[in-house]
Amino acid sequence: MAIKDTPEEWTVTATTTPFTGNKTSVRTDQVVMPDGSTVSRDYQVHPGSVAVLALDDAGRVLVLRQYRHPVRQKLWEIPAGLLDVPGENPLHAAQRELYEEAHVKAGDWRVLTDVYTTPGGCDEAVRIFLARELSEAEGERFEVSEEEADMELARVPQEELVRGVLAGELHNNCLVVGVLALTAAQGGPGLDALRPADAPWPARPFEA
């Protein structure tokens, strides 16, 4: 048997949306279980996100330190952002986020991995890109606001991030998954064997 996630959809007899926010909402579905019973399932409806693991020629990863109110911590993260426009090309969104948050562009883009962040309670899907051949972006820097106004930027050796992940010192989902996936790819088929940047993404279909 192949170890592979597969599409499936159980019968939903009723749906309500008890909360609608600026970017996300909460949905309640009445779902028919295998034994015929019906149960209520609440989950956050999310537009999806992209994240960028930007790796420079010295083996350092571009990271940001940002306050995250729900967990009351400043977390080290990789550049990331929402897919604000339905059907938006995730590569274009990732390039935008790298420019806006770090004022950096990249000459080589690959898909590092795709993840569901919290599939038990949220339908958010994230595509994590690997960006290489980094250089300073042209033009003026993007004007930041709110939490991003306090953001710090650094380039940290990959091995230091791996150490921090395994020591329980770094917790951001995309950073943890991204740096460990990068390390696994380097120790396996190599970075050039990663999927192309425009690889299909069934979780969030997009226009080319």
Describe what this molecule looks like in 3D:
With 208 residues, this protein is an alpha+beta fold. The strands form 3 sheets. It has a 5-stranded mixed beta sheet with strand order 7-4-9-8-11. Strands 1-2-3 form a 3-stranded antiparallel beta sheet, with no helix packed on it. It has helices at 90-102, 158-166, 173-187; strands at residues 12-20, 25-32, 38-45, 49-54, 60-68, 73-77, 80-82, 104-116, 125-136, 152-157, 195-196. The chain folds into 2 domains: 12-45, no CATH class; 49-193, Alpha-Beta Complex (Nucleoside Triphosphate Pyrophosphohydrolase). A hairpin with a 5-residue loop joins strand 2 (25-32) and strand 3. Helix 2 crosses helix 3 (173-187). It is globular.
SSE layout:
Layout: E1 12-20, E2 25-32, E3 38-45, E4 49-54, E5 60-68, E6 73-77, E7 80-82, H1 90-102, E8 104-116, E9 125-136, E10 152-157, H2 158-166, H3 173-187, E11 195-196
Helix pairs in contact: 2-3
Give structural attributes:
208 residues, 3 helices, Nucleoside Triphosphate Pyrophosphohydrolase, 3-stranded antiparallel sheet, 5-stranded mixed sheet, 18% helix, 11 strands, alpha+beta
